[in-house]
Amino acid sequence: MSAIRVGVIGAAGRMGREVVKAVESVDDLELVAALRRTDRLESLTRAGVQVAVELTHPDAVMDHLEFCVRNGIHGVVGTTGWTDERLNTLRGWLAASPRTGMLVGPLSVGAVLTMRLARYAARWFESVEVVEMHHPDKADAPSGAAVRTARLIAEARREAGRAAQPDATTAALAGARGADVEGVPVHAVRARGLVAHQEVIFGGTGETLTIRHDSMDRVCFTPGFLLGVRRVGSVPGLTLGLESFMDLD
Amino acid sequence: MSAIRVGVIGAAGRMGREVVKAVESVDDLELVAALRRTDRLESLTRAGVQVAVELTHPDAVMDHLEFCVRNGIHGVVGTTGWTDERLNTLRGWLAASPRTGMLVGPLSVGAVLTMRLARYAARWFESVEVVEMHHPDKADAPSGAAVRTARLIAEARREAGRAAQPDATTAALAGARGADVEGVPVHAVRARGLVAHQEVIFGGTGETLTIRHDSMDRVCFTPGFLLGVRRVGSVPGLTLGLESFMDLD
Amino acid sequence: MSAIRVGVIGAAGRMGREVVKAVESVDDLELVAALRRTDRLESLTRAGVQVAVELTHPDAVMDHLEFCVRNGIHGVVGTTGWTDERLNTLRGWLAASPRTGMLVGPLSVGAVLTMRLARYAARWFESVEVVEMHHPDKADAPSGAAVRTARLIAEARREAGRAAQPDATTAALAGARGADVEGVPVHAVRARGLVAHQEVIFGGTGETLTIRHDSMDRVCFTPGFLLGVRRVGSVPGLTLGLESFMDLD
Amino acid sequence: MSAIRVGVIGAAGRMGREVVKAVESVDDLELVAALRRTDRLESLTRAGVQVAVELTHPDAVMDHLEFCVRNGIHGVVGTTGWTDERLNTLRGWLAASPRTGMLVGPLSVGAVLTMRLARYAARWFESVEVVEMHHPDKADAPSGAAVRTARLIAEARREAGRAAQPDATTAALAGARGADVEGVPVHAVRARGLVAHQEVIFGGTGETLTIRHDSMDRVCFTPGFLLGVRRVGSVPGLTLGLESFMDLD
Question: Which of A117, B71, B154, C130 gets the most CB atoms within 10 Å of its CB?
Answer without folding.
Answer: C130
